[in-house]
Amino acid sequence: MRKTSRLFLLILLAAHTILFSCRTIPETEELFPEESLPAVWKDIDRGVQKYEWRAGNAECRIYKIDLSAPVEIKAFPEKSGWQKPEATADFAKKEKLLLCINTNPFERMNARNPFSKTKPIGIIINNGELISGPAEGYTALAFFLQQDGSFRAEIIDDQKIIPDLKPEFAFGGFFTVLRGKTVYQFKNYKNMRSGAAVSDGGKTLYLFAGRKLSYGDTAAIFRNLEAEACIQFDGGHSTSLVIKGRRELKGFIPRKAAAGFGLILSH
């Protein structure tokens, strides 16, 4: 093996170890002292509240949605294969959504061209139709239609089992970072983050976007909020959470997304 090839392989292995090695944080370990402060929720709309968590330069904008109230879900993409990505703000405006968030990681048809078509990585089910298949090792957020017309949300650790469960909607992310009281920490790498959490047996949904946070940080925040599970969507410069047409976390231009969903309150 040539020296340059061997050096590249060593660098690749080191990067993989740094990004994906996982440990569990004991229940008593706190990442931020501010976690212990009670959350102050602000009413945004019927069944929707907002909480702004801050600690130093780190912040997280969190929206809590009551799924026992009737809501309508709109999602993209609506078909499989390579497609032009879409800004979540544009999708929210087009569908008149109250909230909208990016979800799945993605690949580009031309990795060197930031304007090329994209394809989601991981499962997407849109209105009961399988748009994108499961991805090995990644988790997902699924929505199940209930007899009363409401939705129940569930974070599922194995995407491969989701098609057989027949949810109405499902969106892939990266990893489950909180399950019960256990926080799963993937190396303390700070970045912009987006994702979702659930509580109350899936009748309460949280959508969030934050900056200067690790996976473990967001998990610890939601553990303090007594969420039952938390999932990470595609973060970094893909992070995009839109509320009433306004994008959270100003100061950067997010990449257009290959997948996302939003909510409309049904009256």
Your description of this structure?
The chain has 267 residues and is mainly β. The chain contains four helices and 21 strands. The longest helix is centred in the N-terminal third of the chain and has 18 residues, at 3-20. The model is unreliable at 1-5 and 7-30 (pLDDT under 50).
Q: Specify the number of helices.
A: 4
* Strand order, largest beta sheet: 1-15-14-18-16-17-4-3-2
Structural class: mainly beta
Helix content: 10-25%
- Strand elements, count: 21
State the low-pLDDT regions, or none: 1-5, 7-30
Report the sheet with the most strands, covering strand number, pairing sense and barrel closure: 9 strands, antiparallel
Average pLDDT, rounded to a whole number, is 86
Radius of gyration, Cα only, in angstroms? 18 Å
Amount of beta strand = 35-45%
